[in-house]
Amino acid sequence: MRTTVGIIGAGPAGLLLARLLHNEGIDSVVLESRDRDYVERRQRAGILEQGTVDVLRAAGAGERMDREGLRHDGIELRFARRRHRIDFPALTGGSSVMVYAQTEVCKDLIALRLREGGPLLFEAEALAIEDVTTERPRVRFRHKGQEDVLECDYVVGCDGFWGVSRKAVPAELSRVFERSYPFGWLGILADVAPSHDELVYARHERGFALLSMRTPVTSRLYLQVPEGTDAGEWSDDEIWDELERRLETADDWTLARGPVTAKSVTPMRSHVHEPMRHGRLFLAGDAAHIVPPTGAKGLNLAVGDVTTFARALTHRRDTGSSARLDAYSETCLRRVWQAERFSYEMTTLLHRFPDASPFDERIQLARLERLVLSRAAETDLADGYTGFPLE
Fold first, then answer.
1. Average pLDDT over every residue of 301-313
2. Catalytic annotation on 344?
3. I want to staple 14 with a disulfide (CB 3.0 to 4.6 A). Which of 9, 55, 345, 367 is the partner?
4. Taking residues 301-319, what's their average pLDDT?
5. 181 is catalytic
6. pTM for this entry
7. Half-sphere exposure (CA, 13 Å, Cβ side) for 100?
8. 293 flagged as catalytic
């Protein structure tokens, strides 16, 4: 099998890259180790930055998002039983975010690929990436019990943290930057209308809480819990009781309860792999970087990576210059580190650390007070939340 770009992974990054290349007349093959049903069901991110929304629309993949997604013009911060809204358009010159689940983005892009694009092979496990420092890299993969080889000009690894792509970068050339947090998020999906029309980020002496949503009738909520917590240790009533405590306000706001349909614990960590390119292998999304979910950056960073690659390859085809491809890692990492910074600041702003001193907690409250009182501080948060520019 032969193609221009071999894409490993049919998450939103790989699928969007295939779409962007298709629109430019560049052929690609997508290899995905899981079946289609799994890809369309796995619950991940749900907040799309302004830049991600713009890219999906320009790619012809935004019709259902615009019809069913929920535009949000702000978030609410809660601490000391007080409420403070951050108005995104007023602070950023018009930017907002869209609540639209990653599962739905994948469904839209899969439908487009199968209807208009090139090969998309499910249950095709990438086994190894070879010859990436030559002009003819190869991906060995297994599909329907048979081993095969995909020959290509470029390989883009969108296969996540545990995939084969990052392992193809020699250890002596790699630098890894990591931070793990001593807590996780206990998250639930519930069949109940959201109790607020925008996301609510709450700092509480018992720990962080987040009120989010997936649809107008489906709520997504999170609680900070100790690292290593088993979701089964918490009953549904215990979760709702704790959410009520941490989201409590001084006014008459109330939290609506409903049947819990899913429950899981997400670990909190940061990870960056440098470089994001080795020869003709390019890393994108979780294959190169992970952020704690507090800043809603994971999916959006992946979109930035593949958009950067697609533009660079188009530039190479149109001009003969490989300068933008050569600069891929540096270009992406500038944005990645800004997102890591933002996610770190949101995480340390809102979570209760088990070893925090009284001084640390006062500083945390002072940072929140600064956001309430300073338009400059509000603007910095709004700029970061709605997204850093795609270069």
1. 98
2. no
3. 9
4. 98
5. no
6. 0.95
7. 27
8. yes
